[in-house]
Design brief:
97 residues; 6-stranded antiparallel β-sheet; 3 helices
């Protein structure tokens, strides 16, 4: 199981979730979404609910959160702390402003 952050290209909207098959999960989420979904980061383990609680005020639509760079840094810190390996893999440094 891994926790993931996915960004909708061209926006500051992020989905934080968990999956044991991330590629399949992205394909499911991409269906019907007009914006390309980009993996921002992943970590081993499940810190999803902690992050959702932490970002409650940033919730925009459903499970989408509007995040600034400072918010992302804090989310990555939480992911690393609760990760089984104590590591987070960041795939995309890109962030819309």
């Amino acid at each position: 199981m891994e926790t993931y952050i996915i960004r909708q290209e061209g926006t500051n909207l992020y989905k934080i979730g968990k999956s044991s098959m991330l590629g399949n999960r992205i394909n499911q989420l991409q269906t019907g979404n007009p914006n390309k979904l980009i993996i921002y980061a992943t970590s081993e383990g499940n810190s999803e609910w902690l992050i959702h609680n932490q970002l409650e005020t940033k919730n925009k639509i459903g499970e989408l959160y509007e995040l600034k760079q400072t918010d992302l840094k804090e989310v990555l810190r939480v992911m690393a702390f609760y990760s089984l390996s104590k590591r987070v893999t960041v795939y995309s440094q890109s962030h819309e402003t």
